[in-house]
Amino acid sequence: MMRRYTGWLLLALLLAGPVRAQDEGERARLGGYGAIRFETTNLEHQYNTFTFRRFVLTTDVAITSNLRFLSELELERFRLLELEKVVEAEGGVTVEQAIEGTDQSEIAIEQAWLEWAIDPAFRLRAGGVLVPLGRFNINHDDNQWMFPRRSLVDRGAPVLPVKSAWNELGLGFTGEVPVGAQGLLTYQLYVVNGMQLDVEVENKYITNPDYAGSPGNHVDNYIELKFEPFTGTFGNDTKQAKTVTGRVALSPSLGVELGLSGYYGRYTPQYLPAEYVGSVGVDFLLSRGPLALEGEYVYTSMGDVEAVARGFARRVYNQAGVAFGPAEDEVPLESEVEVELDGLSRARQGYWVEARYAFFPEFLRNTFFGRGNQPLWYAGVRWEQVWYDELLEEAEFAAGVLEEFEAANRWVNRLAFGLTYRPTPLVGFQLAYELTWTNKGHSLGDVTNYLIAEGDEDFARAFIFGVVFGF
Amino acid sequence: MRYAGLLLLVCGWMLAPAGRAQDQVFLTPEEALAEVFPKGRYVQDDTLRFTPEELEEARRALRRTEPLDSVLVVRRVYDAEGRFLGYAVITEELGKHRPITFIVGVRPDFSVEKVAVMVYRESHGGQVRLPRFLYQYRGKTLRDPIQTHRDIVNISGATISVNSLNRGVRKVLYFVTTYYRKHPPTLTYRPN
Fold first, then answer.
1. Distance between CA B128 and CA B132 in Å, rounded?
2. Judging by beta carbons within 10 Å of its beta carbon (0-12, 13-18, 19+), is residue A362 exposed, middle or buried?
C-alpha cells in the first residue's frame, strides 16, 4: 500500500515545487533602463563619439503587501575595470598593483531603500533615497524623456546642489492623499546626511612638460586635490548637522501637477566653518491629449563662499608644493601637489521648459513604423537657462591666508529641438539638435560639465542620435 | 502507509495557494456590474461567437498582435423601468506577466460609460485601478485613439498595465460597436 501511493505523492511533490517557486519569484521584479547615443559638435576638442551613457538595473521587491525594497544600480559609460595585485617575496617584499579600466567608467548606487507602507498616506522610507528637489531628479529614467541629454538645471550645468541622479542616505516619509474624486496630493519629506565638500584626487604624469608650457626638461608628477560639492556619504558623515529635504505636489487630475520642493543643510565638513546650502524648486506638468508642457525652476544658495575659502586656506595652510627627485638619463622627476576649491558659487538659479506633441502620421501606418505596441512619434522643444552668481574661478592661498579670491557672474543658455519615435512606450529612438551658448568670449567648459570647450569657445552646436530603452 | 500521512501533510503545505494571495480581487462580477451601471436592474446575456475571418478583421482594425477570443459574453443592462442602459463586458488582458480582469460599460451610443478593474494579479502597477486613471476612458468611442500619450495619460511605473487596459477597452468597443450596429438590441425590457 505504501508503494502504491508513494509514486503519486512524489509526483505531487514534483509538481508543487515549480508552483511555489513561481509565486516566490513574482514578488521580485527585475527591471531597468538604459541609453546609448552618438553625438557630434562643432567644438574643436570634442570628437564625434558613441557613448553607452548608462545602464541601470532596478530591483523592486514586494517583501510583503506593505513592505517593499527598491534598488537601482547604475553603470555609467562602464565597460571594464580590472585590478591586478601581485606580492613577491625575494629578499624583501615587492607589491605590485595595476588598475586597468576604460575612461569615465562609473558604478554607483542610484537608490536603495526599504519602505513600510503603514497607510497609503503615510509610508516610512529608509535608505538611499532620491532627493525630491524639482521633478526631474525623482523621475530621471532616460527612457521616459524625449531628449537624449538631461537638463542643464539637473545635470549639465547643475543648479541642484549635486547633479542628477542625486540620492542621499537618510530616513523619512512619503505618501499620497486623494483630494476629491480626481485629485491627488503627494509628499516626500526626509532627513539625510546631505551634500558635502569632498575631495577628488587626480594624479597626472606629464612626460613632455616643455610641450605643456613648463620650462626645463623633466618629467612631471602632478597631484591635484580638488575639493568640490559632492553627494553625501553612505558611511560616516563628515559633519554633525543633518539636512532636510522635501517636496509636496498637487495633481488636480491625471496629467496635471504643480510641485514645490526644498533642501537645506550644512555642506562644509566639521573642520571648516559652518556654511549651509539651501534650495527651493517649483515644477509643473500640464498635459492635454497629445500635447504636454513641463518645466522646473530651482534656486540654490551656498552661503558665504569666500568665508569657506578663508577657512579652507587656514586649514590646508599651503596650497602647493614642489619637490625634485633623482634624475635618470639626466631627466629629473618634478612632483607637485596642489589643493583646489572648486564648484562653488554664492547662488545659482535656472529653469527648463519642455513642450512636446505626440502624433502618428497616417502615411506611415502601413510601414514598419506602424508595427509594434502602440507606436508613436513625438516632436518637441526645450528651452533652458542657468545663471551663476559669483561662480568661484580662483582661490589662491599660502601660509594659511587667502590671498586671492576671484568669482564671476556667468550664465548659459540652451535650446534643443527633438524628434522621437517610440515603437512601444518603453523604447525610443531620439534625434536632437542643440544650441548652447554662454557669456561672449568665455568658455562653455567653465559652466557645463559635459562640453570640452577651449578658452573662447562660447557657442556650441550639437547633433545627437540616441536610443533609450526600459524594461 | 505509516508515512503516507506525513507525505500528504508535506504535499498539502507545498500545494497551499500561498501565491494566490497576490491576486487582488476588488470587485465580484455582480459588484462590477453595479459599479458601471448603478441603476441596472435587469440583465440579458448575449454570447457573441466570431469566425476566424471576423477575428482576423478585428486584429487588423485594432492593429493588434495579441490573440482574441472567439467568444464574447455581452450583458445588456436595463433599469427598473425596463429602459436600456447599455452593454457590460467582463474581459481580460495580459499585463506584464498575468492577466488583468476588468469590466467595460458601454452606453447605447457606443461610448464608454465606465471602466472598473475587478482583479489585479501583478505585484506592481496597480495604480491603474484608481478612479482618477479610469475616468479617462469615459466617453471614449472607437474613433478615439485610446493610446498612451495621445488621449490617455500614462502612470509612471504602470506603463504596461496602462497599455493592457487601452487594448482591452478598444477591443470591447470594437466588438460591441460592430455587432450591435448590425443587430440593434431591444430598447425596453419587461420581465415576465
1. 9
2. exposed
Which residue intervals of A85-192 are DSSP H helices? Answer: none
Chain B CB contacts of A58 under 8 Å are none
In chain B, what are the helix, strand and coil shares in percent, each to the nearest 5?
Answer: 35, 25, 40
Q: Which of B18, B63, B150 faces A20 most closely, judged by CB atoms?
A: B18
- With an 8 Å Cβ cutoff, are A254 and B133 in contact? yes
- For residue B169, being part of any structural domain is answered with yes
Instruction: Determine which of B1, B153, B161, B166 to mutate to test the interface with A (most A C-beta atoms within 10 Å).
Output: B153
Alpha-carbon torsion A458, A461, A465, A471, what sign?
A: positive
Q: Are A221 and A205 in contact (CB under 8 A)?
A: yes
- Within the 1-30 window of chain B, which residues sit less than 8 Å (CB to CB) from chain A? 1-4, 7-8, 10-11, 14-15, 18-19, 22
Residue with C-alpha cell 480626481? A182
CA Rg, chain B, in Å? 19
Q: Give the C-alpha distances (Å, rounded to integers) separating A150 from A126, A156, A158, A165, A470.
A: 27, 7, 10, 10, 16
Instruction: Output A44-50 pairs: Cβ under 8 A, ≥24 positions apart.
Output: A44/A454, A44/A457, A45/A452, A45/A453, A45/A454, A46/A451, A46/A452, A46/A453
**pTM exceeds 0.90 for this model:** no
User: What is the radius of gyration, based on Cα positions, of chain A?
Assistant: 27
Pairing of β A219-230 and β A331-341: parallel
A136-146: burial string, b at 16+ Cβ within 10 Å, e else: bbbebbbbbbb
Residues 52-111 of B with CB under 8 A from A: 63, 65, 96-98
Residues of chain B found within 8 Å of residue A12, distances taken between Cβ atoms: 11, 14-15
Q: How many domains does chain B have?
A: 1
Domain limits at B151? 23-182
User: Does residue B15 form part of some domain?
Assistant: no
Contacts of A179 (CB under 8 A, 6+ apart): A185, A250, A252
Q: Would you give per-residue pLDDT tens digits along chain A (471 residues)?
A: 445 555 555 554 444 443 333 344 467 888 899 999 999 999 999 999 999 999 999 999 989 989 999 999 999 998 888 888 888 887 788 888 888 888 888 899 999 999 999 999 999 999 999 999 999 999 999 999 999 999 999 999 999 999 999 999 999 999 999 999 889 999 999 999 999 998 888 888 877 666 555 556 777 788 888 889 999 999 999 999 999 999 999 999 999 999 999 999 999 999 999 999 999 999 999 999 899 999 999 999 999 998 998 888 888 877 777 777 776 676 777 778 888 888 899 999 999 999 999 999 989 988 999 887 789 999 999 999 999 999 998 888 888 888 888 899 999 999 999 999 999 888 999 999 999 999 999 999 999 999 999 889 999 999 999 999 998
Q: Is B61 left (phi over 0), alpha (psi -120 to 50) or beta?
A: alpha
Q: Tell me the CATH number for domain A28-81+95-470.
A: 2.40.160.10
Distance CA A94, CA A382 (A): 57
Contact B132 A23 (CB under 8 A): no
In a domain, B32, yes or no: yes
**Region at A55 (left for phi over 0; alpha for psi -120 to 50; beta for the rest):** beta
In a domain, B112, yes or no: yes
Q: Report angle CA B78, B81, B82 to the nearest 5 degrees.
A: 40
Which residue's entry shows cell 624583501? A92
Complex ipTM value: 0.78
Q: Write out residues 220-259 of A within 8 Å (CB-CB) of B.
A: 253-255
